[in-house]
Amino acid sequence: MVQVTFLQSNNPTRPGNLCLHHTWPGWGLLQEQVMSKQIQTSPLPTMSQKDIDRFWSMVSKQGSGDCWEWTAGTYRRGYGAFHLNNRSFGAHRIAYYLAMGIDPQGLCVCHSCDNPPCCNPAHLWTGTHLDNNLDMKAKGRLEQGGRKLNESDVRTIRKLYKAGNVFERELGAMFGVTQKNISHIITRRNWPNVN
């Protein structure tokens, strides 16, 4: 038996109780059931006032409607990384927790501003993995990568990358595929037999 999941969302692009199958055509029920589940995250440890002060000292607070940029270390995609008790946590997740008083464990903390280093709680909202992907899709930011490559494309990708001065993301944009696909081509995880 297939059960349709109704989610309560505070996503500004899909508010309220909505059946995703009927609201977002093209997304099947199976995808909905898998992606509407919570993500695996560790609970946030208790933070002392010293930890809280250290966190906010790494945020460049601007006006209430502006992005508050994380100024310390970041993860690969530009999201702030805050180290606490020998663990690393997303800075935007910590900012949400400090502002709302709720650990968003199991949910994505998403940006309405689409700026990964932003820690302004007014720009943050929680949702499932599906909510986050639908928000990215609605804003045209979801990497789609459905283009088929041929052996000539693969050889050209490897040649350009080997020559240097080009990033995987740029190659992905040139060939209409994701950065991850380009990485797999370069490391020969994909197309291993093409020289």
Number of helices: 8
Helix content: 25-40%
User: What percentage of the residues does DSSP assign to strands (E)?
Assistant: 5-15%
CA(first)-CA(last) distance:
48 Å
Q: Specify the structural class.
A: alpha+beta
Instruction: Specify the biggest β-sheet.
Output: 2 strands, antiparallel
The radius of gyration computed from the alpha-carbon positions, rounded to a whole number of angstroms, is 20 Å
* Order of helix and strand elements from N to C terminus: EEHHHEEEEHEEHHHH
Tertiary shape: elongated
The overall pLDDT average reads 79
E-strand count:
8
- Give the spatial strand order of the biggest sheet: 1-2
Which ranges are low-confidence, i.e. pLDDT below 50, for 5 or more consecutive residues? 1-10, 12-34
Topology record:
Blueprint: E1 6-9, E2 16-19, H1 20-23, H2 29-35, H3 49-57, E3 59-60, E4 69-70, E5 81-84, E6 87-90, H4 91-100, E7 108-111, E8 124-127, H5 129-138, H6 151-163, H7 168-175, H8 179-186
Helix pairs in contact: 7-8
